[in-house]
Amino acid sequence: MPTVHVRLSRGVPESLAPELMKRLFFVSSSIAEFELIREEGSVTGVDLTLHSTGGEDSADVAAKVNRVVTEQVLPQRPLAPRVVWESPVHRDTFADTFPELVERGTVVVSGEGQVGFGEPLISLFACLDKRLRAIALSLEAAREYQYPTLLPTSVLDRFGYFGSFPQFPMFVTRLHNDLDVYQSFVERYTAEQRLPDDLFADCSNHDYCLPPTMCYHSFHQFQGRKLEGDMVVTARGKAFRYESRYHTSLERLWDFTIREIVFMGTPEFAAKCRTAVMQQAFALMEELGLTGRCEVANDHFFTNADTAGKILSQRMMELKFELLLPVSADRSIAVGSFNLHGNFFGDSFEITGRDGGSIASGCVGFGLERLVHAFLSQHGSDPAHWPDTVTREMG
Amino acid sequence: MADNAGNKAAIREFILENISESTVRDDEDIFERGLVRSMFVMQLVLFVEQEFGVSITGEDLQFDNFRTVDRIDELVSRKLAAV
Known about the structure:
The complex is a heterodimer of chains A (about 400) and B (about 80). Chain A has 13 helices and 16 strands. Chain A has helices at about 15-25, 60-75, 100-105, 120-135, 155, 160-165, 180-190, 215-220, 265-285, 305-315, 345-350, 370-380, 390-395, and strands at about 5-15, 30-40, 40-50, 85, 105-110, 115, 140-145, 150, 170, 210, 230-240, 255-265, 295, 320-330, 330-340, 360-365. In chain A, the strands form 4 sheets. An 8-stranded mixed sheet of chain A has the order 4-13-14-15-16-12-11-7. A 3-stranded antiparallel sheet of chain A has the order 1-3-2, covered by helices on one side. The interface of A and B includes residues 313 and 319 of A. Chain B: This is Carrier domain-containing protein. Chain B: InterPro entries: ACP-like_sf, PP-bd_ACP.
C-alpha cells in the first residue's frame, strides 16, 4: 500500500493531538493507517498509509488533512483535564481478553464494528445493565420505556444533528415502491447476481435512520407535550454510529447497546439527577472492583464551522463528564457520559414544563459492551476471578 | 480609569452587536438570561484576544470570566496588568 508523508502547514500542539487522531479516518476512506510525526513537542506531520484501491490522489488527501487541522483542530482551545472522581481501586495488570474470547467462540465478529457474544458474557452484560437500570429507577418520577430501533430522520433534523455530526449517522432505506423499479431491479439482479453499484439511485426514501443514541427517542416521545412535573425516563436499546476504521474489539462498535437515562424538568432537577446518577455509578464501579476516573469531556463535533466554539463552551460549562475505565496500562475508554443540555432539547422539541416554558434536560448513557469490555480487561475472562457481587447476581 | 471605562465600553459594544436587545447591564449574566447561546463564549474569547492583545489560555478559560461585562472587564484588566 502506498504511503505518503503529509507536512502540516501549522504544527498541532500535543494537547490537541487526540482531536487530530480522532478525525483522521473520517478525512478520507483512502486512509488505512496513520502515524503522527512529532518535533519538539508538537505534531508537525502525519505519515499516511493509503489503500491502493482507493483511487484518491495523495495530494488531495494531504490537502484534506491540512484542512481539518486548520478548520477543526487548531481553532480549539485546550483546557486542562479536570478529574471529578477517581476510583479507590488500584490495578496494575490488565488482560487483553478479546483474541482469546474470539478463539473460544464466546465472541463472534460478524462485520466491521459488529460483535456478538455468548455466555458467560450475556449474563455479565445483563447483570451490569440490571444494576444501571436500578440506579435509573431509584430516581424520582422515573419510568422505563422500550423503543423501536428505527428513528425518523426528522427527529435528528429538529436539532441540527446532521450539521454537527455528519460522520456518524447510518441511514435506512429501501427500494422505491414502484413496480417498474422492482422489475428492473430484479432483472438486473438476476442477470448480474449481485447488487448494482448504483443501487441507491433506486432508493429515494430517507425517512428513517438508525439511532446514534437513545435519548432522542425520549425527546421525540414527548415532542410538543406539556409535562405535568419533572420526569426521568430510562430505556435500553441499540445505537449505531459509523466509526470508520476506529472500530476496535468490543471497545468501539458501529452497532452497540446503551442504557440511557433522560431527565426532563427544571434546570435544578436535571442537574440534581445527573449528580445523583454520577454518585451511584461511582459507587457501583467501586463495588465492581473497577479502577477508573471521571473527567470533563466534549462531544465529537465534526466539520461544523462552530466546532471549536461548541467544544470550548461544552467543556467550560462542564456540560459533559465521561466515566473512563482503563483497559490497559496506558489507555482508558469512556463507558458512560453524564450530560446537561440546558433548554436545547426542550426548545427543539417544544417540550414545556408546568410554568409553560421549555424544559431543561440532561441524560446519562452507559455503553454496555464497553462496560463489559473494561470489566474483562480488569478482571479477566474467567468468572472464577470476577467479584462475588457479579457472580452471585449471575447465578 | 479612562482606559478601564474604554475597555468596558468596547466589551459592551461587542456584546450589543451580537444580541437582539439594545441595552445590557454590566452585571447581567448574558448566558443565564438567554441573550446568547453558550457557543458565544468562543467569540468572546477571540474578541478579548484581538481587541486587547492578550492571550486567553488554561486557567483563564473559566466560564465565570465571561458571564457579564464586569467579569470580562476584570479578566482583561488582570491580563493587561500581567503584560
